[in-house]
Amino acid sequence: MHSSGLWKPVLGGLLLALAIYIGGFKFDQHLRTRRGPWRVTFTTEPAGAPAIVVDQPTLNIADLKIVFTGETTTNASGTVVFDVPQKPVPFGRVKFEDLTYLPGTVTFDFFGHEIELIPRTLYINRKPREWKSGETITLSAADKPVGLPEPRPKTRY
Predict the structure, then answer these.
(1) Of 13, 14, 58, 67, which is most buried by a Cβ count within 10 Å?
(2) pTM (2 decimals)?
(3) 17 and 78 inside one domain
(4) Is residue 98 part of a domain?
(5) What's the pLDDT score for residue 3?
């Protein structure tokens, strides 16, 4: 049996498979990041109420402000870009984030209000609301839901 001519087709096949893998990986990375992340600015109103300002340029969402009247915070202001998971936020907490394909989904708990950023719809206390750039939404203690059920933690067997 003569195998001296076998290495060329095997090497060619391996190189072709490597090129397809690298090309597919680069294309998937492009699809994951092409729309860019959510930019959320954590700030305080002149009256002292905490607020967030949401921006997502690719989706034409700019300066959507949500003000939490009747609440206070002592943390500093700042902007958080949600391009990778588990970034700390100045106030409130991140309940859920799926940043696989940006901008993804980010769900916050701010003083008992659930705010969910999804590309197609803004959810406030689990009620859909149309994205409107430049809008100011004011939430008070009366707007808090009675009790939003928390998802049960997954148990591993």
Answers:
(1) 67
(2) 0.80
(3) no
(4) yes
(5) 59
